[in-house]
């Protein structure tokens, strides 16, 4: 019978949890069968109770692995989404400039940027030329809307893919870091110093060739802890932040559990760094 | 009022009579000794019992649960049922489902897509009851695809969420459409709206044809 060979326990040593759990994850059968009865008949388990005990252990192990794999796969979606968002933003801005130039010659009150394009898109064209400008402006508005929707998607999904990173960096910066590293796993394997300058590769290579000072930060500059810290302390802030981001990425990749302590420690450290500025102004 | 299955009782929690099962707490529900309250507002099956639907549940039977999420409802099911297979396809809630399954040695968590029953038919045996709460488009189709797990006397206990199918249509129209699809594989025995516990949800009891 083909059914017997479909069983999750067929042809594996059920005592070998890894092998059995692999079968639970990847196996299949055309139809369900009385597996417990079959397992006892075949001597895989002494009785149904023993069968269920074993099934519990194996499904727990299989599902734990599958969950970890599944959550990891989530980082791929996040990478596409953040790149798509950036593409939409960039294209929308480029096209908005084109619209502005063109519309400026037709509508004297045409505004600038995405908002200007949105305004043009709302107008009623009165001739074929205006129709084209308004249609183009409408594309700009559509792209800008898509960028917003993608941002929303990232905000919703990043916390489940990388709970600690999303909390510390914010969902969008978390997604950017994952994208720059090429995945959550490779981000988790990077030292803090590398995370600190992710996104500043050009500046870093110039520095390595002896042509520039070493960059103090890459995309993490967009984080309030770096951008909002006075110039003299930005290096310390970037180091403190990237150190905790590295811990967060490792936690997300290896354990996937949210650990509120990382944030508390970072808050303490930032308070110390920012206190320096206050002390100096007090003096 | 229909009878509650063995292992489900009405008990007092903070002066309020509520459904309860015996087992480890899972989602911060009030507990009293071994008993923990089963919150019908967070559980469509709980609401089906509260509204007095004839679920045919007796306690001790085998169950296939589709759309287990973090395990809120399926943990109660495993408390009073026999071997319980819990299928969920989203990784994040399944992590919490694992915590609910840990102390329940007859609750078997499976990260699988309920639209692809062949991917778990090598693990799941034919069962007495299918409970379904997937809340995604094509709910009746999911139930039809899984009808093969029920023997002739088995029961499907499904919650159909109108807004998962169509956000603008009138819920009763959506329910009619889903029930029509469901009749390809099932005979519908009873339906009931789950208000006030769940808005725009229909509870369905059916048996395979
Ligand atoms: C309303 S929630 C279920 C709540 C749960 N039944 C309870 O009461 O504790 C719906 C769940 O169904 C899951 N789901 C949707 N489509 C699914 C599918 N095709 N296969 C497995 N799970 C699915 C969703 O991921 C979600 O977790």
Question: Could you name the key traits of this structure?
Answer:
heterodimer, A: 283 residues, mainly alpha, Helix Hairpins, Serum Albumin, Chain A, Domain 1, 14 helices, B: 209 residues, alpha/beta, 6 helices, Nop56/Nop58 (chain A), Nop_dom (chain A), Nop domain-containing protein (chain A), Nop_dom_sf (chain A), snoRNA binding (chain A)
Provide an overview of this structure.
The complex is a heterodimer of chains A (283) and B (209). Chain A has 283 residues and is mainly alpha-helical. Chain A folds into 3 domains: 3-71, no CATH class; 74-161, Orthogonal Bundle (Helix Hairpins), CATH 1.10.287.4070; 162-283, Nop domain (Serum Albumin, Chain A, Domain 1). In chain A, 74% of the residues lie in helices and 0% in strands. Chain A has 14 helices and no strands. In chain A, helix 7 (163-169) packs antiparallel against helix 13 (234-255). Chain A starts with a helix and ends with a helix. The mean pLDDT of chain A is 92. In chain B, the strands form 2 sheets. Chain B has a 7-stranded mixed β-sheet with strand order 7-6-5-8-9-11-10, sandwiched between helices. The longest helix of chain B has 12 residues, at 171-182. Chain B has a single domain, classed as 3-Layer(aba) Sandwich (Rossmann fold). Chain B is 24% helix and 31% strand. Chain B is α/β, with parallel strands linked by helices. At the A-B interface, helix 2 and helix 4 of A face helix 3 and strand 7 of B. The site of S-adenosylmethionine (SAM) has 18 residues of chain B, from helix 2 and strand 6. Chain A: One of its GO terms (cellular component) is box C/D methylation guide snoRNP complex. Chain A: One of its GO terms (molecular function) is snoRNA binding. Chain A: This is Nop domain-containing protein. Chain A: InterPro entries: Helix_hairpin_bin_sf, Nop56/Nop58, Nop_C, Nop_dom, Nop_dom_sf. Chain A: Residues 161-275 form the Nop domain.
